[in-house]
Amino acid sequence: MAAILEITINPPQVNTLSTNPPVILDLDGPVATIRFNRPQSLNALDLDGFRAFGDAVARLGEYEGLRAVVIRGEGKAFMVGADLTAVTADIDHAAETVGAMIDVLHPAIIALGQLPVPVIAAAQGAVAGAGLSLMMGCDFTVADENTRFSLAYSRIGASLDGGGSWMLPRIVGRRKALQIALLADPFDAATALRLDLVDEVAPHDEFEAVLGRWCDRLANGPTHSYGRIKALLAASSTNDLPTQLDAERAAFLSCAGTDDFREGVTAFVEKRPAQFQGR
User: Fold this and answer.
1) Residue 279 resides in a domain
2) Per-residue pLDDT tens for 154-182?
3) Is 5 helix (H, G, I), strand (E, B) or coil?
4) Could you tell me the pTM of the whole model?
5) What is the pLDDT of residues 222-265, one digit of tens each?
6) pLDDT bucket at 7, cuts 50 / 70 / 90
């Protein structure tokens, strides 16, 4: 069976290639890129595609020196969810088909959220269904001004997956989440920015430059600090205050033992920019 995950590492260390893999993982220095690679279907994924995405996320957790992750799509879409042709091919067993996809996707969403480095969604073209859920699960989103968004599930008589029902009301509030999810009307990048679903909207011809600035800033930051901050904020919604204060103490002491902390406080006292090394 052909591999479903393409890995390119610069300098070359591992090279597992296949013809037209649905997901490509590029490990290039401190910034890794997961790229959906089914442009003919707007990057809709079948079961193998979701498995490839899960494999890619798992590989990220094993990559030493990782300081930032970019998730993006090939062609005219970021990602539009499940490939419904795979569902309609055996519609009498749709629940089994979709269930298998969800059982692969959901652990990958959890693992992605637990990565101790910043994750940036590069949103271009169409972002729909599980693609929008996945985008919301990233730490930041940079959107092309021409991007169009739709939660889409109710249009096919389905409910949400990929963590969309958890993340959407936390970002936009319950009432707006109901409107977006039930009506499933498409909306543009300016609306997404107003709703805090994206962090910056870039002019089409400046998109790569804007994305590059986000990558450079985050990949040159205090990586250990970023990881501890992400974990603290993720836990804050379920911890009581005493538990959260204990977690803050442990995280701060963990940071205090790093080279980046030594550099950060020294640079502050010396009134110069810090030069973090991610360790």
Assistant:
1) no
2) 999 999 999 999 999 999 999 999 999 99
3) strand
4) 0.90
5) 999 999 999 999 999 999 999 999 999 999 999 999 999 999 99
6) low
Whether 198 contacts 189, CB under 8 Å: yes
Q: Which two tokens stand for residue 76?
A: 């005219």
Give a yes or no: residue 274 inside a domain: no
Half-sphere exposure (CA, 13 Å, Cβ side) for 162? 27
Q: CA angle, corner 87, sides to 5 and 38, nearest 5?
A: 35
In the chain, the largest separation of any two C-alpha atoms, in whole Å, equals: 69
Question: Average pLDDT of 92-118?
Answer: 95
Give the rounded distance of the alpha carbon of 183 from its chain centre.
25
> What are the φ/ψ torsions at residue 129 (nearest 5 degrees)?
55, -130
Backbone angles phi, psi at 171, to 5 degrees: -90, -45
For tokens 């995280």, name the residue.
251
Q: Are residues 139 and 37 in the same domain?
A: yes
Residue 33: closest CA among 105, 122, 94? 122
- Start-to-end CA distance of the chain, whole Å, equals 39
| Residues constituting the chain | 279
d(CA 44, CA 49): 8
CATH number for the domain that contains residue 264: 1.10.12
Task: Spell out the residues 6+ positions from residue 171 whose beta carbon is closer than 8 angstroms to its own.
Answer: 136, 195, 196, 197
Q: Considering just the CA atoms, what is the radius of gyration of the chain in Å?
A: 19
- In this structure, are strands 148-150 and 187-188 parallel, antiparallel, or unpaired? antiparallel
Residue 277 domain-assigned (yes or no): no
Average per-residue pLDDT for the chain: 92
Q: What are the CA-CA distances from residue 134 to residues 17, 100, 139, 184, 253 (Å)?
A: 25, 17, 10, 16, 32
